[in-house]
Write a structure and sequence with these properties.
It is built from 9 helices and 5 strands; from the N terminus they run ββαβααββαααααα. By secondary structure, the chain is mainly alpha-helical. It has 2 domains: about 80 residues, Winged helix-like DNA-binding domain superfamily/Winged helix DNA-binding domain (Arc Repressor Mutant, subunit A); about 140 residues, GntR ligand-binding domain-like (Four Helix Bundle (Hemerythrin (Met), subunit A), Up-down Bundle), CATH 1.20.120.530. A 3-stranded antiparallel β-sheet has the order 3-5-4. Strands 1-2 form a two-stranded antiparallel ribbon. α4 packs across α7 and α7 packs parallel to α9. The chain starts with 5 loop residues before the first strand and ends with a helix. About 25% of the residues are buried.
Length: about 230
């Protein structure tokens, strides 16, 4: 059995257990596609791969089941949640509702610090996108992180921790489908981000909502065109 030790943290930060670290690793492996949709999770192999006890691994997988990233099959164990066109569209619809609602709240409450977060987030995202457009696929991981940071910055002044947490979970599950498509959507997504950036600084709520709706549905169409989701 592996002992559950805490990971050293700098002063002022909460302690973090091995289980917390492995939870994030497994979750990221599911979202990135390293653990494929529908794949059986063999506890003994996963125990060795993640260096954690089977009992702790079961707890982690049960937590992920609550996010619908894993299916708990009773005595048969666990498997990665399958991907489907139906779920993809449901996630797109849910993300659209949450993000457009959060935009209204955030634009109304946003201050100078909020604008600064948007400017910084878009700067990093745009730099990664320029690299991708130039053919540097090694920046894909950076782009994925910066994409969420930018969308998060846009709605970060909504003053609702529950809304932000829910949106984050939906965004990640939606992102899993983009990772399955295994391709960057190109100039269209770059243009969407630039326009959304400009509309946010102008506090143009309806304009930003329209971009988000188009942006998310175009993402769905891109995934479906890849032929990797049935």
């Amino acid at each position: 059995m592996h002992s559950e030790k805490t990971t050293p943290k700098v002063a002022g930060e909460a302690s973090e257990t091995i289980s917390d670290v492995v939870f994030r690793q497994v979750r990221q492996d599911i979202i990135s596609g390293a653990l494929a949709p529908g794949a059986k999770i063999k506890l003994e192999q996963a125990r060795d791969h993640y260096s954690i006890s089977v009992s702790s691994l079961r707890e982690i997988l049960s937590r992920l089941a609550m996010e619908n990233l894993v299916l708990a099959e009773g005595q048969r164990g666990f498997e990665v949640s399958p991907a489907s066109v139906k779920e993809l569209q449901e996630l797109a619809d849910l993300r659209t509702v949450l993000e457009t609602h959060a935009i209204g709240l955030s634009f109304a409450a946003g201050n100078l610090e909020w604008e600064g977060r948007i400017v910084a987030a878009h700067h990093k995202l745009a730099a990664a996108e320029r690299k991708l457009l130039a053919g540097d696929a090694s920046r894909t991981v950076d782009w994925v992180r910066y994409d969420w940071e930018f969308h998060q910055a846009i709605v970060s002044a909504c003053n609702s921790a529950t809304l932000m947490t829910t949106l984050s979970s939906v965004f990640d599950r939606f992102l899993r489908y983009h990772m399955l498509a295994q391709s960057f959507r190109g100039k269209a997504v770059v243009d969407d981000h630039k326009l959304l950036f400009e509309l946010a600084l102008k506090r143009d709520v309806e304009g930003a909502r329209a971009v988000i709706r188009r942006h998310i549905q175009s993402g769905v169409e891109h995934v479906l065109t890849s032929g990797r989701v049935n």
